[in-house]
């Protein structure tokens, strides 16, 4: 198969022919959101392509939807077929003349949520993150709670407040316990980020069934970057004993582009060995994670490089765990890895870890140092992965700027 594209500049950037992520966009001329595939700095309009004879008749309706739901629900045969066709179209210069008119520059597009988020689950799969947060939130106990190595701990988040990258984030208000023990109310003073990787379910399941970790790729369509904004003061007071609630539900940002699993084939990497061995339903025939190198920039300054490959629980184990009780999956379910933190101090995917609870401020350029987020601060998370071509692909970015709290 052709490895190079006729689209100018595509081969040398993070959106070459080996990537082809999907998103939803609109333009000033045509404000209705529609689906597209990214190549270089361009978006190929899939709705326009589906209006012609390009896709098979049974696939076309999916590309007349505003989001990826219909296409994702069709499953791996449709995903592979479309990816193959798009690779041909964008790789073979003979198609250039007829397809060039269907390209829209990214700079001219407004991006929307790529899919309607059905349910949103957030895990806690980094041993380093869980250990750090244990030390910070529960200094008098063992940092890792006894269940942590037996199951991927998680919680159900709020699907309706998942927003596309670039959406302004209004500082949440809420209750917290002041150091003197008084109950205070007001804007969060410890607003934080969580750099995560999310996985999107394409093919759902029936209630009362479960999914084996070995069937991960039969259900999961692709990956997207996630920032699980977290108000640590609200969280610390409210979370006992039922877990995160309003400290995290005010907003969760996701990237504009969903990277198909096939584009991550070259990024598969052995996941850490597990001790103790988990129960049979969590055992994988072929245990792997993904070698994604993440970067967190705070007002433009890179403050962390979290490594996703070291996550203790794999996405396949997360999927098996969230369905083992018979809970069904729906197209558009989003499950995120939890904060990605590595063993080193500059590999921590949240600011509560990076600044060690606000005790060790970091420099982020003008107006710094910082402990937690100030109004006007911008955080941008990016990630790269090895590509089949030997180069890298980029998973885009998830960015957001903090707005003042409501009066
Ligand atoms: O340990 C705690 O009480 C809290 C942990 C978190 O806030 C982390 C969380 O939301 C899951 C994650 O992103 O890893
Ligand atoms: Ca989280
Ligand atoms: Mg959140």
Automatic annotation (TrEMBL):
GO function term, MF aspect, one: metal ion binding
EC number(s) recorded for this UniProt protein: 3.7.1.2
Entry binding sites for Ca(2+): 122, 194, 196, 228
Keywords: Calcium, Hydrolase, Magnesium, Metal-binding, Phenylalanine catabolism, Tyrosine catabolism
Pathway: Amino-acid degradation; L-phenylalanine degradation; acetoacetate and fumarate from L-phenylalanine: step 6/6
Fumarylacetoacetase N-terminal domain sequence ranges: 18-114
Cofactor: Ca(2+); Mg(2+)
InterPro entries on file: Fumarylacetoacetase, Fumarylacetoacetase-like_C, Fumarylacetoacetase_C_sf, Fumarylacetoacetase_N, Fumarylacetoacetase_N_sf
Binding site for Mg(2+): 228, 248, 252
Top EC group: hydrolase
Biological-process GO terms, alphabetical: homogentisate catabolic process; L-phenylalanine catabolic process; L-tyrosine catabolic process
Pfam assignment, any one: FAA_hydrolase
Ranges for domain Fumarylacetoacetase-like C-terminal: 121-402
Top-level taxon in the UniProt lineage: Bacteria
Entry binding sites for substrate: 124, 138, 235, 239, 339
Active site location: 129 (proton acceptor)
PANTHER family tied to this protein: FUMARYLACETOACETASE
Protein name: fumarylacetoacetase
Origin species: Glycomyces paridis
Name of the gene encoding the protein in the UniProt record: fahA
């Amino acid at each position: 198969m052709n490895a190079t594209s006729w689209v100018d500049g595509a081969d040398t950037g993070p959106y070459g022919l080996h990537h082809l992520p999907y998103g939803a966009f609109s333009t000033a001329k045509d404000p209705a959101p529609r689906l597209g595939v990214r190549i270089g700095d361009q978006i190929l309009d899939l709705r326009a392509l589906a209006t012609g004879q390009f896709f098979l008749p049974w696939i076309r309706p999916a590309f007349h939807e505003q989001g990826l739901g219909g296409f994702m629900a069709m499953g791996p045969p449709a995903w592979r077929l479309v990816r193959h066709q798009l690779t041909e179209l964008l790789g073979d210069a003979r198609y250039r003349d007829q397809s060039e008119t269907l390209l829209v520059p990214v700079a001219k597009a407004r991006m929307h949520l790529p899919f309607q988020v059905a349910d949103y689950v957030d895990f806690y799969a980094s041993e380093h993150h869980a250990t750090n947060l244990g030390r910070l939130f529960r200094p008098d106990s063992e940092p890792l709670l006894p269940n942590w190595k037996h199951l991927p701990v998680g919680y159900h988040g709020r699907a309706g407040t998942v927003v596309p990258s670039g959406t302004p984030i209004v500082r949440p208000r809420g209750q917290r316990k002041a150091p003197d023990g008084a109950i205070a109310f007001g804007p969060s003073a410890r607003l934080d980020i969580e750099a995560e990787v999310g996985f999107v379910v394409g093919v759902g399941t029936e209630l009362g069934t479960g999914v084996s970790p070995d069937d991960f790729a039969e259900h999961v369509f692709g990956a997207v970057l996630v920032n699980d904004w977290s108000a640590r003061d609200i969280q610390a007071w409210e979370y006992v004993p039922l877990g995160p609630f309003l400290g995290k539900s005010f907003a969760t940002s996701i990237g504009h582009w969903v990277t198909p699993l096939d584009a991550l084939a070259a990024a598969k990497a052995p996941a850490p060995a597990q001790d103790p061995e988990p129960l049979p339903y969590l055992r994988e025939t072929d245990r792997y994670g993904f070698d994604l190198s993440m970067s967190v920039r705070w007002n433009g300054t890179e403050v962390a490089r979290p490594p996703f490959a070291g996550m203790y629980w794999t996405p396949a184990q997360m999927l098996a765990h969230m369905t083992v009780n018979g809970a069904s999956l729906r197209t558009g379910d989003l499950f995120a890895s939890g904060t990605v933190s590595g063993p080193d101090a500059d590999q921590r995917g949240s600011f509560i870890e990076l600044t060690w609870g606000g005790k060790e401020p970091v420099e982020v350029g003008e107006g710094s140092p910082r402990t937690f987020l100030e109004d006007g601060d911008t955080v941008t998370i990016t990630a790269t992965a090895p590509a089949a071509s030997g180069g890298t692909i980029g998973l885009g970015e998830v960015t957001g700027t903090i707005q003042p709290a409501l009066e």
